[in-house]
Amino acid sequence: xxxxxxxxxxxxxxxxxxxxxxxxxxxxxxxxxxxxxxxxxxxxxxxxxxxxxxxxxxxxxxxxxxxxxxxxxxxxxxxxxxxxxxxxxxxxxxxxxxxxxxxxxxxxxxxxxxxxxxxxxxxxxxxxxxxxxxxxxxxxxxxxxxxxxxxxxxxxxxxxxxxxxxxxxxxxxxxxxxxxxxxxxxxxxxxxxxxxxxxxxxxxxxxxxxxxxxxxxxxxxxxxxxxxxxxxxxxxxxxxxxxxxxxxxxxxxxxxxxxxxxxxxxxxxxxxxxxxxxxxxxxxxxxxxxxxxxxxxxxxxxxxxxxxxxxxxxxxxxxxxxxxxxxxxxxxxxxxxxxxxxxxxxxxxxxxxxxxxxxxxxxxxxxxxxxxxxxxxxxxxxxxxxxxxxxxxxxxxxxxxxxxxxxxxxxxxxxxxxxxxxxxxxxxxxxxxxxxxxxxxxxxxxxxxxxxxxxxxxxxxxxxxxxxxxxxxxxxxxxxxxxxxxxxxxxxxxxxxxxxxxxxxxxxxxxxxxxxxxxxxxxxxxx
Length: 527
Hints:
alpha+beta; 15 helices
């Protein structure tokens, strides 16, 4: 997609005033009321198809924006950035195709911030609307325009529900120096029982009780799951496992359809978190159910891992290896093969049995809440798990020295992940504490270990792919040389991360940080 840059539309000193028409109130009746109170001059009528774009997890909307493509007859399509709070246009450019990635977003401000918010996610068409807008100018006694009023009809296109979903709105746009007219017009509308709208058209459709827009419907994230310290630990563990299963299943359609690489990432994170918590709470399930499900989740990780690795490599190629066509072809072929294997695994009886065993374990957790171990207060038990996980990280980390193999750092990274998952999954147990500081310190260590491992994996993958390309005679000599330079740069980054590890771990294992963990989680361990 290429966009022709235009000057940004400056938001006005006072944003438009928006109202929603009740279902039994007609546009014509409201327009007649307006004409009886003021002189009104028709301006124009426009018809357009509007496609609202956002990532699957609504990153732009959460950042305070809406992004849509406006297509009108005999006019070039425009990409429009608006405020999600009041619909004010912030910028507009002409385009010749819908953007899909951050790289497709125009340069300059505010577009640069939009691209940064999108990151690696794909832009999806979250909502299609057919729009009709009738615009009028409201005049004073001297025939000067004092405000503009737009009557809007937005009809959901391609709804597929068998019934129309529409939104009718009236927008009052104040003009500088005539704001009192806009206020008076707004009072007229409120007297007619028109409801003020707090938000954009997209937000109105997304928050409506009608069928939700495209994308993944996330009713509640794991971080919003309320856990209580006094409730039985088996009950709280069961609730967390249930939420993790929901998150994994919610992402499965996006994994199958390859909508966005982060669907697979979120799918894998949910399964890894579940496996981590199962490994921590094995004692709550004496029948071996936890070990059995953990083993199956390990299998699931093995069939999703190759696809995720290739997603990361292709993402890297899109930015740094754009001219390496032979490598791009090989990565694409490998990705298609790995995706076929993954879908076959998701269609297999083994995956179905995994989900059934997961549900059964949730039921076992409910029964275990009546036993002595399962009935213990969740806060006390999770405190102990977190504190032991922290001590394990310290113990392993202190053994690492300059001559330690890379595997030692990889093992430490796994232990830091287990600790991080516990802190995140049961974060609501620690409201009012300095949990954020504890996570921040842990994350700094994780980032260092992640840089060390990821650069090693990427460098090894580059060398392996170069050897395959030599065997298959794919790619030119210059392309292979470029891949070698990239692998060298990755190995240099790995070496820097290794050099920085000692200082990072020293900060994490400092007296102040250790005292914080002891204060927050260590009371039960001493009993």
